Amino acid sequence: MGLTAVWAICRKDLMLWLRRPLQIIGSLLVPISYTLVVFLGNQATSLEPVAVANLDHGPIGAQLVRAMENAGVFRLRLTSPAHARQLYTSLHVAAIITIPADESALVAAHQQAPVDVGINNLNLDFTSDIRRAVPDAITTYYAGLGRRSPVKITIAEHDLRRHGVQLYQYSVLPVIILIVTVNGIIAAGMAAAGEFERRTVKELLFAPASSLTIIAGKILAGFLATFTLAAAMLGFGALAGLTRPASVSLWLAALAVIALSAAFASGTGIAIGTWFQRRQPVSVAATLAAVEAFALAGGLGVIFFEPLWLQRIAVYDPLTYAIHGLQQTVFYASVSGFLRDIAVLAIAAAAAAIAGSLALRRELITQ
Amino acid sequence: MSRVIWGCAWKDIRSALTERSTLLQSVSLPVNYLIMMSLFVLAGSHAPTAVVLNDHGPYARQFVTAMRQAGSFSLEVTSAAAARQQFRAGNLVAVVTIPAGFDRAVARHQPMAIPVQVNNLDQDLTDDAHRAMRLVVTKFYAHADPALVSIVAEEKDAYTRDTGYIPFLAMSIIVIALMVSGLLQAGNAASRDWENATIKELLLAPARAWEILAGRMLGAFLVALPAAAVVLGVVVFIVGDHPARLALTCGVSMLTLAVFVAAGNALGTALKDRSTLAILTRALPVPLFFLSGVFGPIGFQTGAVQAIATVLPIHYAIVLEQLGFKWFTTSTMTPATDAVILTGYLAVFICLSGIALRLSRPAAGRV
Lengths: 367, 367
Known about the structure:
The structure holds 2 protein chains of 2 kinds. By secondary structure, chain A is α/β, with parallel strands linked by helices. Helix content of chain A is 68%, strand content 8%. Chain B has 2 domains: 2-40 and 163-365, no CATH class; 47-144, 3-Layer(aba) Sandwich (abc type-2 transporter like fold). At the A-B interface, α2, α5, β4, α6 and β5 of A face α2, β4, α6, β5 and α7 of B.
């Protein structure tokens, strides 16, 4: 296998890839779409607008309102009952919380003092948020009473990790893996399919290079295009303070995960491109394959907290190990399960390279 | 006249049927979005939690019942060792330990802290677990000793039944299916004539421009219909959303598809290139979709999102679908106004298609 020939084929494919900026943008659109699912979804499903009508002029009403404000769950609008009703019927608030006029008096008399909560229960997401948030405010109020509080049960929370990771931060790494997968399959797949579409595959066959050299050059091109893009994303994330591995060794570990994922995607791309031999179906198949693999690996959540049936499928998905490996090294400064992740990814990359090689070799012989 | 329209439509239908990847995309993209959103919802809905009971008294059991009824946990009562093992493996969001002496402390109104270990992988999960535990405390007191805690939330729901988040989102997925298939089919049909240089023949044919446009839109509408029906079938038979008003649902779906067929025709005529159209069709739906009130009434969103949504036809299609399926009122306007606005968009896009074709006449001469 001549290294000069490998590099020549790789360079030609890379130059063709760079000449198609629309293709690069197109392969980035899918990850951007799913980033929006997480970011906009998270924003849209938090901080519901709620109208509060406090009719109580005693201390309890004011303390309950303060507790709701401090809970950080609602966008509160303190208003009159009539205006609250108007906001509710015109769909500008999701709920009305009415603190009755005799709330303080009833509490002082140790009688039941219900707070009315009218919920527009269109869907369980914001309904559950409100159902959780009102008792949260009530508990906060009682906690403020200290020893006088009748609520003697308290929750002593111990977090497993010292630092919390925000949801938007947490979602960055699966998106990097999605970029690796989509771009790797598209870059390598298009390069392979392009040879058939442009009818240059015969020239490749007649070139004084072995089929192994051709395949290695093509996989290398897909790998470099993908790895560079994903490493740049990780670097950009680090600059923005979102994804910064704590040490040089953790940086190397993260880059190793990205490299193996890129090799896996590139090999898969060659197999898909050779199978379809046309660029348009490759684009569709790449998107479908990448998105499904991403979804089944728990890319939008935490796979270990998903339903058991999904966890069972995820075991066979290489992206599960890529996402896990990257999250452990970048967020939690841990190499727990790293060897397993790397081993699975290496096997998957080797298998994809073999599948790609066999497909291309068969077609080269057929041609 | 009708012969010309049907002739144009039939030509486009036959051409479209040869492009299987486009047909596949019309179904696969919306179904993918549904899968993504479902996984996004599943991940955050029920936190897998272990309860270690070191006290088996009636109050301790009531506390566990309150946890089960909180609607926030996927609960498993287990031993301390098993819980520790699962927590270490990362399969649990939280471990709640009911300490020995819990019953005695509750009966004697003595302070009692319940240790909760939280796997704080991301802040969103941590906050949910935290609020859910506070809800459990108030639920527990409401049953165990109602006289003790006088402030309680009294809920009044707007609808008799809660709607799950996935069935709620699925109604909007139909709109994304109609949008993708309408834009793709009509846009491809319009661009194809430019790419294959058949536009010159069309424009020189003894037929009026509006007949050609009508035929093209009819063809795209008929080709897009099966893909929309497949997604509708998934939503009805797999997700379980049964239309409350079938005629209204079908009418709204037809009108929505017509709007996006007209929009696709205008876009395809303007772009004259199928690959650019495919990229735009993949890029546009998700951002537009998220800005159109998919997660709940648009009135619950920020002012900027509300302003954007009111100029997008998708918003009116979504609120009308929600009305047809569940008889939900999610629009700030009357249903008739929403329908008139959506019809207005159809008229605007038809006019734009005509203008795009007229402006393209000089370009057709150069084809």
